[in-house]
Design goal:
The protein starts with a helix and ends in a 14-residue tail after the last strand. It has two domains: about 1-40 and about 370-495, Golgi alpha-mannosidase II (Immunoglobulin-like, Sandwich); about 50-365, Glycosidases (TIM Barrel), CATH 3.20.20.80. The protein has an eight-stranded parallel beta barrel with strand order 2-3-4-5-6-7-8-9, surrounded by four helices. The longest helix has 18 residues, at about 145-160. By secondary structure, the protein is of the alpha/beta class. The chain is built from ten helices and 21 strands. α5 crosses α6 (about 195-210), α6 crosses α7 and α7 (about 230-240) runs parallel beside α8 (about 260-275).
């Protein structure tokens, strides 16, 4: 509990003016604080779709894995993305050193987290370019048979070495975003990506190499960097036969607003997969924001990123990333994308986003499933049908899940997280569901990890077709709050006041 108390006490005090507080924000008549969210380690969570990135531990060695994993093992996530580092693993032709990666893979497995490896980046041993940062973003397929054979041997050596420990392998990283360059194009001042057919050629070679060693391997392809112009590239991938070689399609939907464009892009990808006739999962493989603006901003983004992907049925969603980057990534000393603060190289510390992650991993394990329900948010005391308020002024996002027979309702305002959003008072209308009993309602704030008893509710008639439950003057924020029932906490219930 010392770990939990540390982040609860320090972070809540540090950001108390920026976080929701029922009493200070005028909701004490409706909400009574009764306790804090419980947490589970990753080993204690049986399974879930929630993951985190452990990228740039290849030849770049951007942070200390041991200092990071001691916090992440308490996060509850079940998946971790790694990068393989061909240049670091093979410094002499045909001689492979996976010792550094053994330590990381075994550390994750010991923590109860499944590692998946992105096979990425070139090797100067096989390419007629200097082995520096600007040269390893080249595909071995464009350097002749020697480079292709070197890559194939490397992939098979890794698959054999990690057999029984790693079954998921991704091919490259963001080939459409400058990480699979045409050799020499960077000299002109404008990096040019290889066409999608070249990437599919690399995927085919890699998949065949892996499957020759591992019968149960899952090949992950795409690794697309999200932008408004990538649809044509995705078309090119599937036209070139990508679906024939992969089991999972990965995507990195970098947008300021997580809900913006991603639903349409996701359906576009699903349509292309359906056209192929193959059953292929979709993973959100990399997405996050730095804590440079504030740790509260990063934590809010994490809650919306995870919930958006869960709501849209993505098979796995990974937050970028575990730790801040050091070792030359920023002139300020650290590149603050991690949910672990690495600004002090001798003493890492958790950020607010970690405790938001813990709330999500507790709520959304594999016992939780998406459901369609009648669940509405209206301006306080005035339904939308009768108000003159502009719709976009207070239009909420809503979704619901079922955890066993317990409902979890989520709602929030999808504004740009860089804007100043004020807490709004809303009314929640809920129609009875046959699969769950809704008694002793509570509200959960995933960032502060506070649980509130809801003091008042009413049963109303819609005038025509039936009755609904209404919760008056509830807070709406720019990140999800969860409405559920006290019985979701089971054995921990006796610790809550007034329940």
């Amino acid at each position: 509990m010392q770990f939990i108390d540390q982040i609860r006490g320090q972070e809540l005090q540090k950001y108390k003016e920026l976080l929701f507080n029922a009493e200070r924000d005028g909701f004490s008549n409706q909400l009574e604080y009764i306790g804090d969210m419980p947490f589970r380690t990753s080993r204690e969570v049986k399974a879930s779709r929630l993951g985190i990135g452990f990228e740039v531990l290849d030849h770049r060695e951007a942070y200390d894995f041991d200092q990071t994993i001691k916090f992440i093992r308490n996060s509850g996530v079940k998946w971790a993305r790694l990068q393989s580092g061909w240049q670091r693993a093979e410094k002499t032709p045909g001689v492979y050193d996976f010792g550094w990666l053994d330590h990381i893979v075994d550390g994750l497995l010991d923590a109860g987290i499944t590692p998946w490896i992105s096979l990425s980046f070139g090797n100067g041993l096989y390419m007629d370019v200097p082995p520096c940062r600007g040269s390893y973003f080249y595909s071995p397929t464009v350097f002749g048979e020697k480079a292709i054979a070197g890559w194939r041997n490397y992939c098979q050596a890794m698959a054999r070495h990690f057999e029984g420990r790693v079954s998921y392998y991704e091919v490259w990283n963001e080939p459409n975003a400058g990480f699979l360059q045409k050799p020499g194009s960077e000299l002109s001042g404008k990096v040019e990506a290889e066409p999608p057919e070249e990437y599919v050629k690399l995927v085919k070679i890699t998949a065949e190499a892996l499957r020759a060693v591992l019968e149960d391997v899952k090949v992950i392809g795409g690794s697309i960097s999200g932008c408004s112009l990538c649809n044509e590239y995705i078309h090119g991938l599937f036209d070139a036969g990508l679906a024939e070689h992969i089991d999972i399609f990965s995507y990195h939907p970098y947008e300021e607003i997580p809900e913006l464009y991603w639903p349409g892009r996701l359906q576009f990808i699903r349509d292309r997969i359906a056209e192929s006739g193959r059953k292929i999962q979709i993973w959100q493989g990399e997405n996050g924001v730095p804590s440079k603006i504030s740790e509260v901003y990063q934590a809010r983004f994490l809650t919306r990123r995870y919930l958006t992907d869960l709501r849209l049925g993505v098979d796995m969603t990974s937050f970028f990333t575990a730790s801040d980057f050091r070792n030359g990534y920023s002139s300020a000393g650290v590149f603050p994308y991690g949910i672990i603060d690495a600004s002090n190289p001798d003493c890492y510390s958790p950020k607010l986003a970690l405790r938001a992650m813990q709330s999500f991993t507790w709520l959304f394990d594999d016992d939780a499933s998406l459901v369609n329900v009648s669940f509405e948010i209206h301006p306080y005391e005035t339904p939308w049908a009768y108000t003159s308020r502009p719709l976009d002024d207070l239009y909420p996002m809503v979704c619901a899940f079922r955890k066993g027979n317990i409902p979890i309702y989520a709602y929030y305002h999808p504004s740009n997280l860089r804007s100043n959003y004020d807490v709004h008072a809303v009314s929640i209308q809920m129609y009875p569901e046959r699969w769950g009993v809704f008694e002793k309602p509570v509200l959960i704030d995933p960032i502060t990890a506070k649980i509130y008893r809801i003091k008042q509710e009413s049963t109303c008639s819609d005038g025509n077709y039936g009755r609904f439950r209404q919760f008056h003057r509830m807070p709406m924020l720019d990140y999800p709050l969860f409405l559920t029932v006290a019985s979701i906490f089971k054995d921990g219930l006796e610790n809550f006041r007034g329940m």
